[in-house]
Please model this.
Amino acid sequence: MNILVVEDDRDIRELVCQSLTQNDFRTTGCCDVQEAKQSLAEVNPDCLVVDWMLPDGSGVELIRWMRRQHQYQQIPVLMLTARSQESDMITGLDSGADDYLTKPMSLRELNARVKALLRRPAAYQAQQDILQVGPLKLNSRTHEVIVGEVPVELSKTEFKLLKLFMENPEKVFSREQILDAVWGMNAYLGDRTVDVHILRLRKLLKPHGANGMIATVRGIGYRISPKNS
Model:
């Protein structure tokens, strides 16, 4: 899992990155808004930890910009800031942050909150009736999937799995994230369950030439890519 840490204080940035790395996350550190925007495009992070005060803008402005960009709208964001007033917290959350933590912080709590954000199925689910990625079109209201002009029959689980991917094109999901989002956080299932359903989904899409869109990312998980259609 990739975490982008946007913090202008080098000591704090390195401390946060080190702590997250020790908890098996991959981290990228940024010192300002411009560098963060560049890293968003290059790293495709699973979550952001963002400071409020930055040299070339604010974390609030960065989050608001992200929420206007389709490809970044669903990435969970934790604001990490010294601003502890209730009005500041409300502003941060209203700007699109998913959680808010004040400095000085407990590193254990920081890691726990990041993990909680990554487990939230809602973090990946945009409320759209019709989704389209490449030749694939999905209608959540009518429960229909069409490739080009040809309908594809999917089970309820296969539909939910495809919907998760199509709501987040190019985003890499770990097997754990897929299990939480599709089967629910209380489901006691193994990673093999995900692999089997991915195999079934690809098999159903293969006659329509769309099976290559569900890509395996070695050592991480799966994603959908219109580039492979």
